[in-house]
C-alpha cells in the first residue's frame, strides 16, 4: 500500500459495498441466505441476504481485498469500534437490532476511517 490515504480509501470502499449488500437484503443468525431464506455461504452467487459479518466478507471478496489482512482487519476493527462491541456477529444478531441500525453503523464507521 502506498499511503495511509490509499488504505483508508480501500477500507471505505469495502464498507460502502457491505452497506449495498445489506440494503438489498439483511439477515440474522447466519452469514448469508438465498432468496428462499436458506442459509448459504456468503461466497455463493445465490446469497442475497447478509448479516453484518457476511456482508463484510462478501464485500472484501467482491472488491479483491479478502486476502488483504490489513484492509480486512481495519474494516472489521473500525466497525467494531463504531458499534462499541467486541463482535460484529453479536452486534448484528442482537434481538432488538434493526437493519436501519446496522446500515447507520456502517455509515458512521465510514466517517471514522482515516
Percentage of residues in helical conformation = 55-70%
- Give me the Rg, rounded: 13 Å
The helix tally amounts to 5
- Number of domains in the coordinates? 1
- Name the overall outline: globular
- How many beta-strand segments? 3
Mean pLDDT: 95
The neighbouring-strand order within the major sheet is 2-1-3
Helices and strands, in order, run as HEEEHHHH
Q: List low-confidence stretches.
A: none
Q: Beta fraction of the residues?
A: 5-15%
What class do helices, strands and sheet pairing give?
mainly alpha
Largest sheet: 3 strands, antiparallel
Spatial separation of the terminal alpha carbons: 15 Å
Quick gist of this model?
This protein has 114 residues and is mostly helical.
List the helices and strands and how they pair.
Elements (H helix, E strand, L loop, with lengths): L3 H21 L7 E2 L5 E2 L8 E2 L1 H11 L6 H15 L4 H6 L5 H14 L2
Antiparallel strand pairs: 1-2, 1-3
Helix pairs in contact: 1-2, 1-3, 1-5, 2-3, 3-5
Any overview of this molecule?
By secondary structure, the chain is mostly helical. The protein has one domain. Helices cover 59% and strands 5% of the residues. It is built from 5 helices and 3 strands. It has helices spanning 4-24, 52-62, 69-83, 88-93, 99-112, and strands at residues 32-33, 39-40, 49-50. Strands 2-1-3 form a 3-stranded antiparallel β-sheet. A hairpin with a 5-residue loop joins strand 1 (32-33) and strand 2 (39-40). Helix 1 packs antiparallel against helix 5 (99-112) and helix 3 (69-83) crosses helix 5 (99-112). The two termini are 15 Å apart. The model has no long low-confidence stretch (mean pLDDT 95).
Amino acid at each position: 500500500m502506498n499511503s495511509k490515504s490509499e488504505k483508508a480509501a480501500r477500507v471505505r470502499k469495502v464498507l460502502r459495498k457491505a452497506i449495498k449488500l445489506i440494503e438489498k437484503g439483511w439477515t440474522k443468525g447466519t452469514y448469508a441466505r438465498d432468496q428462499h431464506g436458506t442459509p448459504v455461504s456468503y461466497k455463493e452467487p445465490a446469497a442475497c441476504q447478509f448479516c453484518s459479518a457476511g456482508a463484510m466478507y462478501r464485500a472484501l471478496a467482491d472488491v479483491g481485498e479478502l486476502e488483504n489482512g490489513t484492509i480486512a482487519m481495519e474494516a472489521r476493527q473500525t466497525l467494531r469500534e463504531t458499534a462499541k462491541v467486541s463482535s460484529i456477529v453479536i452486534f448484528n444478531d442482537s434481538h432488538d437490532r434493526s437493519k436501519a441500525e446496522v446500515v447507520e453503523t456502517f455509515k458512521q464507521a465510514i466517517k471514522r476511517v482515516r
